[in-house]
Amino acid sequence: MNRDEIVNKVNDMLMQNFELTEDKLLPSSRFVEDLGLDSLDAVDMLVHLENQLNVKVDVEKFREVRTLGNVYDLVYEMSKELT
Amino acid sequence: MRACITGMGAITSLGLNVREMYKGLQNNDCNIKYYEEWKQYNGLNSFLGAPVPSYDIKYLPREVRRSMSRMSEMAFLSTIEALKQANIDLEEVRKINTDRVLLIMGSTTGSPACLEEYYRKLFENNGPKGQLSTSFFKVMGHSVAANVALGLGLKSPMISCASACSTSSHAVILGMELIKTGLYDMVIAGGADELHYTSACVFDTVKAACTQFMDRPQESSRPFDKDRAGLVVSEGASTIIIESMEHASKRGVEVHAELLGGAYYCDGTHMSQPQQNSMMQTMKMCLNRAGIPPSQVDYINAHATATSIGDIEESNAVASVFGNDTPVSSLKGHLGHSLAACGGLELIASVEMIKNQEIIATKNLIEVDSKCAPILLLKENEKRKVNIVLSNNFAFGGMNTSLIVSRPL
């Protein structure tokens, strides 16, 4: 997957499972303040990323993410490791 | 301290509020359906159920809805209706931060639909892989109470109770008792259960579910009738707002009925066989606690679920306490058996009967089973003086309850 594909797939996953609209999904969007997501959502996001993008994200690294841009980067990094 | 009802909420197979439920009862309606898709389940012989019509809960924030199963959603909706009738809006509830209000609600188990999904995934993945963070919050025993509290944003004492078909009547009786002790000013009491084939499985396994009338679903639930063939599962939610008379009066809110007394009394005899002696003891204890003789009761709302033994045992118990002159009916012919919701729903219907001075008869009761005691079982709705009602609910494990409610004095 290239970075654009990852951005699209992560955004689809967020819209599908967290009732977010596309206009809110910016790389600068902060999880808590801008997207209204919390710790339970973060746990679910890991499950959805694995199920829908087939990417197993490192939990410790995921703890550090604060923005959607951080998620794109992390998923991109993990997907590269897989290949 | 006297306890009264100031708000009622009902989500049933007959409609999404108290008015729709009661109108359906007056019209002798029934929404029991045949479920062809249940035929895929090995060993299941009962394919009947009464679903609640579709409802909208999207107005709740996602972070509240995400841990709600269907039963929690319905319990939230019935609670909103009950609070509204008691002149309390959601904004006011969110300001509650007191030890004087108690929430007490429950269900038979956590959501059966979500339990099935949870364990299916657990077995498929040979472990917890893939479980969402909210999965357990939908299946835990106190899911309904916790989710209603979350939906309301309530900060107050809360208890969860679970006694299957007696759940909401237990909640109401306990709430009433605690109000009478002076410990609380207001109790939000109720119960909910959702329709699922596993509920039919439970009753079918012990040969208590209806396995006939598949071509005539609306005639399938027929309490006390000689052709009855077992109970039909349904779903719903009931919420009752109970207040001390002083608190209701201080708030200037309408009192719909007074809760005179209640009793719960266990069998300790058999897990599934109804025992007339315990039923009798429960009704006597309830009368004693309400401080009234049997002759003052104008109507008995029977639990009668249309099982072969339960209806006979209850008729015998009623006959031994009340004789043969007090009108009796069951609402399971209209509503099916909504399990944890039914006690509250039948109490609400009883209050509406008092308001309307009429008795709703048992639907589908054509010819009374000769094995039932010769009590006064109504086959047609009747306009009658109804000021005091006793309502029974019984559950597996010998969980017997009786409640007495009266026109406000």
Spans of chain A of 5+ residues with little confidence (pLDDT < 50)?
none
Rg for CA atoms of chain A: 11 Å
Q: How many helical elements of chain A?
A: 4
Q: Unreliable stretches of chain B, pLDDT < 50, 5 or more residues?
A: none
User: What is the share of helical residues of chain A?
Assistant: 55-70%
**The CATH topology of the largest domain in chain B, please?**
Peroxisomal Thiolase, Chain A, domain 1
CATH superfamily of the largest domain in chain B: Thiolase/Chalcone synthase
How many structural units, i.e. domains of chain A? 1
Helix run count of chain B: 14
Give the amount of beta strand of chain B, in percent.
15-25%
| Shape type of chain B | globular
Overall mean pLDDT of chain A stands at 92
Based on the coordinates given, report the CATH architecture of chain A. Orthogonal Bundle
CATH superfamily placement of chain A:
ACP-like
**Largest sheet, strands/sense/barrel of chain A:** none
Quick description:
The complex is a heterodimer of chains A (83) and B (409). Chain A has 83 residues and is mostly helical.
Structural write-up:
The complex is a heterodimer of chains A (83) and B (409). Chain A has 83 residues and is mostly helical. Chain A has one domain: ACP-like (Non-ribosomal Peptide Synthetase Peptidyl Carrier Protein, Chain A), CATH 1.10.1200. Chain A has helices at 3-18, 39-53, 59-62, 68-82. In chain A, helix 1 packs across helix 2 (39-53). By secondary structure, chain B is α/β, with parallel strands linked by helices. Chain B has two domains: 3-251, 3-Layer(aba) Sandwich (Peroxisomal Thiolase, Chain A, domain 1); 258-406, Thiolase/Chalcone synthase (Peroxisomal Thiolase, Chain A, domain 1). Helix content of chain B is 35%, strand content 20%. Chain B has 14 helices and 16 strands. An eleven-stranded mixed beta sheet of chain B has the order 5-4-6-8-1-9-16-15-10-11-13, sandwiched between helices. Chain B has a three-stranded mixed beta sheet with strand order 2-3-7, with helices on one face. A two-stranded antiparallel ribbon of chain B has the order 12-14. In chain B, helix 12 (308-322) links the parallel strand 10 (299-302) and strand 11. In chain B, helix 3 (70-85) packs across helix 7 (143-152), helix 8 packs across helix 14 (342-356) and helix 11 crosses helix 12 (308-322). The mean pLDDT of chain B is 96. Chains A and B meet through helix 2 of A and loops of B.
